[in-house]
Structure prediction request, 128 residues.
Amino acid sequence: MLQVVAGIIELDGFILLCQRHRDSRRFPLKWEFPGGKVETGESPIDAIKRELEEELGIQVVDPEKLDAYSFGYPGEEDFHLHIFKIHTYENTIQNRQFETMSWVRPEEILNFDMLEGDLPFVKKMHWE
Prediction:
């Protein structure tokens, strides 16, 4: 099963959401938490550190695992999503890969066209 990671970055009560590029092959313009696929031989913790370096230019320190669950989109291989809270990181967040990014109040997340795979976590956190 494919392994995927996502990072929850909070600043002053706001959560960072990232929007996929309009020309993305899968789910263009959908909003998501930053992250991506775990590579072969890589742990989920190593993957979240690598992905957030690639996407945001930050070096994550001691991510905290918040949740993990399996999800699947119709016609695609199911995946197991590992969600990490990012408490500490070095450098300033930069947009290296997204159409846009936005700092959002947790209760406003469902106003965004989120990836369906992120919704079980959002609902579990009672952010709605």
